[in-house]
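Repro case for the chain-ordering regression, as requested:
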Amino acid sequence: MAKQGKSSKLWGGRFSAEMADIALDFSESIAADSRMAAEDIWGSEAHALMLAKCGIISRDDLKAILTELEKAREDLQAGKLPLRRELEDIHMNVEVYVRQGAGPEMGGKLHTARSRNDQVVTDCRMHLRTRLLDIMEAVAALQKALLQRARGNERTVMPGYTHTQHAQPISVAFWLSSYVSMLARDQDRLWGAFQRTNRCPLGAAALAGTSFPTDRAYVAKLLGFDGVVEHALDAVGSRDFVAEALAALCILMSNLSRLAEEFVLFSTYEYGLLEIHDSLASGSSIMPQKKNPCIAELSRARAGLVYGRLMEILTLLKALPSGYNRDLQQDKPPLWQALDESEMTIRALEAMVRTVKFNTGRMRELVGKNFATATELANFLVANRGLPFRTCHEIVGGLVAQLIAEGKTLDDHRRVQEILRRHGQELSLDEIEAVCDPQACLVRQVSLGSTGPDSVTALLASLKAVHAEALKQARSARRRIERARERTAKLVKEALAL
Amino acid sequence: MAKQGKSSKLWGGRFSAEMADIALDFSESIAADSRMAAEDIWGSEAHALMLAKCGIISRDDLKAILTELEKAREDLQAGKLPLRRELEDIHMNVEVYVRQGAGPEMGGKLHTARSRNDQVVTDCRMHLRTRLLDIMEAVAALQKALLQRARGNERTVMPGYTHTQHAQPISVAFWLSSYVSMLARDQDRLWGAFQRTNRCPLGAAALAGTSFPTDRAYVAKLLGFDGVVEHALDAVGSRDFVAEALAALCILMSNLSRLAEEFVLFSTYEYGLLEIHDSLASGSSIMPQKKNPCIAELSRARAGLVYGRLMEILTLLKALPSGYNRDLQQDKPPLWQALDESEMTIRALEAMVRTVKFNTGRMRELVGKNFATATELANFLVANRGLPFRTCHEIVGGLVAQLIAEGKTLDDHRRVQEILRRHGQELSLDEIEAVCDPQACLVRQVSLGSTGPDSVTALLASLKAVHAEALKQARSARRRIERARERTAKLVKEALAL
Amino acid sequence: MAKQGKSSKLWGGRFSAEMADIALDFSESIAADSRMAAEDIWGSEAHALMLAKCGIISRDDLKAILTELEKAREDLQAGKLPLRRELEDIHMNVEVYVRQGAGPEMGGKLHTARSRNDQVVTDCRMHLRTRLLDIMEAVAALQKALLQRARGNERTVMPGYTHTQHAQPISVAFWLSSYVSMLARDQDRLWGAFQRTNRCPLGAAALAGTSFPTDRAYVAKLLGFDGVVEHALDAVGSRDFVAEALAALCILMSNLSRLAEEFVLFSTYEYGLLEIHDSLASGSSIMPQKKNPCIAELSRARAGLVYGRLMEILTLLKALPSGYNRDLQQDKPPLWQALDESEMTIRALEAMVRTVKFNTGRMRELVGKNFATATELANFLVANRGLPFRTCHEIVGGLVAQLIAEGKTLDDHRRVQEILRRHGQELSLDEIEAVCDPQACLVRQVSLGSTGPDSVTALLASLKAVHAEALKQARSARRRIERARERTAKLVKEALAL
Amino acid sequence: MAKQGKSSKLWGGRFSAEMADIALDFSESIAADSRMAAEDIWGSEAHALMLAKCGIISRDDLKAILTELEKAREDLQAGKLPLRRELEDIHMNVEVYVRQGAGPEMGGKLHTARSRNDQVVTDCRMHLRTRLLDIMEAVAALQKALLQRARGNERTVMPGYTHTQHAQPISVAFWLSSYVSMLARDQDRLWGAFQRTNRCPLGAAALAGTSFPTDRAYVAKLLGFDGVVEHALDAVGSRDFVAEALAALCILMSNLSRLAEEFVLFSTYEYGLLEIHDSLASGSSIMPQKKNPCIAELSRARAGLVYGRLMEILTLLKALPSGYNRDLQQDKPPLWQALDESEMTIRALEAMVRTVKFNTGRMRELVGKNFATATELANFLVANRGLPFRTCHEIVGGLVAQLIAEGKTLDDHRRVQEILRRHGQELSLDEIEAVCDPQACLVRQVSLGSTGPDSVTALLASLKAVHAEALKQARSARRRIERARERTAKLVKEALAL
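-- result from build under test --
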């Protein structure tokens, strides 16, 4: 009989003392691992099926192991799979479950040719890949909401801003669709992260592979991966896929924080461009008149949370020797938090976009008040008076300064005419009206991707196609994973039926 | 009768729709707030006592309010204070508790002259100040463990490293005490953070103070604060005290990650300078021989977690308009996490320091093998042969290169003599032995703060004093807070007895 | 004669190959070091004076060394001190200067009992301490500008915001002074950083002190330090003082980014609360009407730069073994950049505060338009009708909802009266006017630190005192450093005169 | 004549005061812009060619403009293009150059239908795309060096580590190639960043496009872009491509910091696995025996620099309203610094890999000393004695504990035999030798991606192919850009010849 060490752990042979309480508190990962229980069981099934296929364990062993794993799955679904903290992690919990049901031998056999080092990163990749698809679908839903609100607003004029100052008239559809365009690149990055995540490290064992004649490609296929992470040392020791997913989320959240900021800004009394739905705002316990854009504010703040989680992982990885180090255990809590909070932010903003009310009257009013068509006037002088642009810029700049001094706007056509005349430019009142009217100005924009209604109609069409493509990609990836799950289930059923 | 809005919230008057589920999910803060329940109740008691003292509420009102608050405290201590998620935060939960017990009027009166804006930051400061004292006491305990292990090891020689390469012989006491010295500055920073935290914002109300004739200094005193944050707008809208606490923790964790790194390094087979206790290590599920320094690795990795939380808060604060914004609600989760994880790291490292076994034989062996006393030889030539240091540096550098080429060390005194002779320097074998012996070399270091045993004895004494001073500071601050708590309790009792 | 290695470096004895070009490019630090040339020379003078005082070098040696160091200082002041990249750093450049003038022996003697490890951190602390005082003086100047603009504006009413929504009327003086209050804590943190910076590591040598009987306290005093960093290993290997300075700057910059954000926001056409001076704005090359708040935007963005530099240092320190490691060389570039950019941001904002024009008419207009006095109305009902606050909150909330629906404001006193009557509350028109007038509302705020003019007058007085105190602290620290400089110069002169 | 404003700027029409000195200091970007001078000129040429092609300017105008742009290019190449700080940025400098040569009209005409907002981001993308290709080629060179050093070392045994503790024997080729594998994913990410960078925003104008009938696709093609960023508002206001490039560099640097760390560790006296070439190390000014791994240390530290730059950009982007804001100007300095420092780090590590000397004797010695083949012994018992793995793990764990207690290793075959016998396992001495010999153990590893020589040979082949593919991608992208440059040059020549 093997002499039992003083430790009750599965690795206790060489140890002469139990783990201290503080060490256990400090090192257990059950809370973060529990999310991956289904993945751990699926992974164990696939591994066992492969071991039997390769003749490493017998068909009877396989049956005994799978019987327990199926029971564990049922317990998990029923919410009664025991997760004991003192067993450190999900892998040990599942293995002990098998041992208790089928005898210690079977637990041991299941662990042949693998290690917790490759198991944990396999589970993590399996869970992450699904969460990335969740995020992609949430982003697609937000894009859809933006596109739906854009449609029909191709001629709804509002001030376009640069430096938070009025620049030129744009349409509401143009403004909203700019976020669809930004988010399309986020989808690309998420998809890139998915592709580098969805590769199988299982079978790398502790760091160096194994002397058993395993079939890693078979396991990868059963688990719905697109291939293996071939190099064993790289497979167990690398977490760049975690950092990449977090980086993609950070950039996404930076984009969303800009949308949130504009909702906060545009819903102020001063701007008044839009009104957030009451169901997405909150009041004050002391000031009865308040309606606060709390969801937009919290969305904006969530960027910090996700940034912080990326910084956590990058710090953790800095100067870590290669291969598995226990530091890597801390990759999951920040990852899960960032995924959860990002998804909730996307969904909250989607609800906000769906229900926001645009104050088109206020938009129209503002766009006429602050010289937003001055550029058009300069362009008109270029095109019709043959002056160089810089000269026209100066003329119109002087005109604006004069009108501001007089408390007037470009709507005062007669005064505009007089001042331009003093700069040597003669325009008819009709010309001035045609040039300075924001709506007319909007329509005149014709360049590719511009705010002109025809351009925007084209933009919406192309963005819709891009949005649909990413969604399709995510959905078909999800289906491939589901089919792999079904295939494994079928093989398990067959093995149990023998 | 007040017409009730469609919202069931306490601020619902002007709202026409209930908060959406996603908004509630996204905006509730009960989980992070629940830690501050005791502080919220204490704060409410002090506020109520002040309102009565200033004649803003009657003595009867006070009695009714305090009766409910005392009940709430008892429920909290018994673990049965209801915390309803749909009431958004801890403040509303406590207020609703009072309303249910004493009638809606009393809830309303309690909320006179304050706002959730000043309440939440008061609770946060009260909880944080205690946690900062916890951290200071934990750091002091770690310093104490380091000092205890240092004592008696003033002459235990080990290699001193720079660039992770052997530099000069140092003592174990010198090495360990360097961390005590670093941690002393962390204590200073934590104390600075405590001082800027322990000031009372209550009474600032929503942003502008109140028209009620309140007595803010009285409330501050009852709550054990060292003073008030006078400016109301600053009081409710600033979170620099949170960022400062996190920054102090980050710097502390960077220091601790260095200690953890040295434990990892020094416990490798290759170094073998020390052995981590079995109770603070773990094994491998696949490799039977492994003993992994998991607690040291996890301590090292925790630095990333705390860094990330600071980055979260700094990002959140960036470009936020002044005054209260809902973004600020997200200050607490990162703060609590960073405090908890920092404290656990300190305590884990304290356990490791207390139980680590030093392999003094291996230390002595290593220090002699790799020319660690070369500098001493150069210094000897300066002092006894009158050569400039640079010349001696070159001579000894050449000697080392020659010995390495021959596979020899400075212990081969005869060979050292021969090579030095070729450089024109004649030393007796006795001189060489005296100069190159690591132990003798250690003893010769005499400058202030050096590794020489006398210097180290003085260092240990001064570090012990500094350590005790910080601990005393923390403990007496804690006592002041406790006394304030007792004073409030006494006043409450008196008010209830009327 | 010492056999010369193939390396031309001062440390080349044991090396058989010259440093590769890429290694030299990668490792030289002349650009970052050149700022510390004056400090390096001063440090060398003090070290030499101490060596002579302690009898480690002769008076003649001292004279020879000081002669060259004085020449080096003159060359530096004349902008012609040669800084050769291949000499790696400032220390080697100064030492080689001495060797070339006074012979290699003197260079060597000067380097007795010290190392580049303690030299570099001494120079860095000396330069940083002065830059921290620069920052403190710049912050004080910004505070002064804010206080000056506040004074006289204690009754200038403007909307006070929470959640970027109108909350209650506040005064311009109250708004501006909130930043003075925030900055006062930044001054405290900068001063804490100064105190932990201004301690002398020189004499710690490479890591373990020295066998020469040096006098570290004497050197510290000559260099204007407040004391020594006693523990040699801590002295050369710690950079927490760098991280602390950066953390203090980060928090400061987060505060400044909020001020910058409010300048951007309040200068929009929509808000129109203030106008940034033309000299601190810029135009558009294409849109003639634009006036962009570029300085405010760039100030806001600079927060990112400083945050990034802190993250750089914290990452660098993570898991670094104790003692000096070459990684530490990279502490200076981020530190210098953060100091420079922070100072420029402070000065730019000071200019903006000094020259900004407040549109008090627009402020008054806005404050009346959006129910900012609703809280006062509720408080009035509490105080005069004996209703609980929550009930009044609901009544006024309903009133606001009704008025918004009708497109009216609280200025429509008759309508307010009617609606309140329907809620069972009878108020005279005079009462309504008195309660709802923003100016009257402002004056009614009486609590400590509130926006009421008397409170603000008191606030301005106490903030002015706090501001003056910090400035005095910084200036007297600067004078102490200057006096130390003069003392050293006098001793140098005396030594040269012998 | 246009009335000139008081400002001398090209946008000065509406301004009444010159920009203040501090504003100019604070806002100029010449230093960071100067890198993009060639791109700015090329962009201007393409824009002018398009304007003429679309009939917006005449052929004569085109000729006049191109004449000056060609001169500017020549001046630039000769290092004498004037870059005046007071002209704020590179675009204004080039335009003023054109104005001075061809008259103000031509400068103005060149600026038709574009803005600095789209110009700057075009230049930035053009420069960044080339730098990303530089980085990819540098990474490929590092991979090549690693592969070259791996080849021939497939059977060179060394300890494989997990938790920095001996785990199992691996080969040097396996260790080195793990980094090639990690870097392959970095190449993927860099290529993804390249693809999202190499799209043309020019023609988006200030934010909304233009009313001129431009041909944006034509400009994009002339400039070697793979397409346009269609949405004008997105084109000028988004910097996610900058954040993505920095994120890719961060992850790359985290990988490189791990390689650097292993060089530092493995070159210690204690490990002694390898020796860094003297040309990539440095000495100590005080300790003659020191050889410090400075280049590895600095490489490790550079990760912090790059992390910090990503955090800078993410902070900057947080909550920025959409469209162009001046904050965005600060995107370039961190980007250029991160690219430069990353490239230098890669090249320094390549030099280190090329020249490092492996101490294969020490490797072989270490691998036998610390039970690295214990897992193999357990596996042997599984495979040959039919025991479950967990039982074997316990047996071998006990054996190891016993041997450590006795100061013996697995090389003491007879003692191993005795102890195993006591656990009921009988092995012949030949069996023990075969199982416990590290070399034999290495050879037995057969799973895909394992450290067995055949697996590694296959790994090296597949990694070489992947490496070559990425390099080919980068080179062909570079050629496409070069061909676009030549095409533009040809068109310019033709236009000038008319």
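Ordering looks correct now. Chain A has three domains: 12-112, 117-359+460-483, 374-436.
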